[in-house]
User: Which sequence fits this backbone?
């Protein structure tokens, strides 16, 4: 129950706070994707895709971006499945645990989350700018938004996830 409440709070934080921050024209942090990054690897791959679609649909509904987040979240889920197949996470699967800093080593979690955050932003901003691609604006937005999202995700992990010592 605590985990579900945490996921709802994270999604509300994204929709209420982060989506309405107007820091610059280049910063669009998408922290709600942490839910997809941290999904347990023992969940059926089809369910992971459905969860990603539903999460993206919720984000699309509140941001009036038809299909953008749904598509990007499903893309993220597919990339995540491919990346996790390359990791030795049998212990995490056996314990039926979520992927976070308490179940993965710091270097593995940083690599996994940074790659997934970057792929999400590359895909989402490419979809958003179809037809009017300004390469410099696109690259700066992707890099800055990815870095800010990654930093916020790590801060959330360090603040709210219990580390096993």
Assistant:
């Amino acid at each position: 129950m605590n985990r579900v409440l945490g996921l709802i709070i994270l999604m509300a934080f994204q929709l209420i706070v982060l989506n309405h921050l107007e820091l610059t024209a280049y910063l669009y942090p998408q922290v709600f994707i942490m839910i997809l990054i941290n999904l347990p690897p023992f969940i059926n791959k089809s369910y992971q895709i459905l969860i990603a679609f539903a999460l993206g649909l919720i984000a699309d509904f509140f941001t009036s971006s038809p299909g953008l987040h749904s598509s990007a979240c499903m893309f993220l889920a597919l990339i995540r499945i491919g990346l996790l197949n390359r990791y030795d996470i049998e212990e995490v699967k056996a314990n039926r645990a979520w992927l976070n800093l308490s179940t993965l080593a710091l270097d593995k979690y940083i690599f996994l989350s940074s790659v997934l955050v970057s792929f999400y932003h590359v895909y989402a901003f490419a979809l958003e700018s179809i037809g009017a691609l300004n390469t410099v604006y696109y690259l700066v937005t992707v890099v800055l938004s990815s870095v800010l999202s990654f930093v916020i995700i790590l801060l959330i992990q360090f603040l709210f996830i219990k580390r096993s010592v």
Q: What stands out?
A: Residues 3 and 9 are 10 Å apart (CA to CA). The chain is about 70% helix and 0% strand. The helical segments are 2-17, 34-37, 45-63, 68-86, 90-94, 106-128, 135-160.
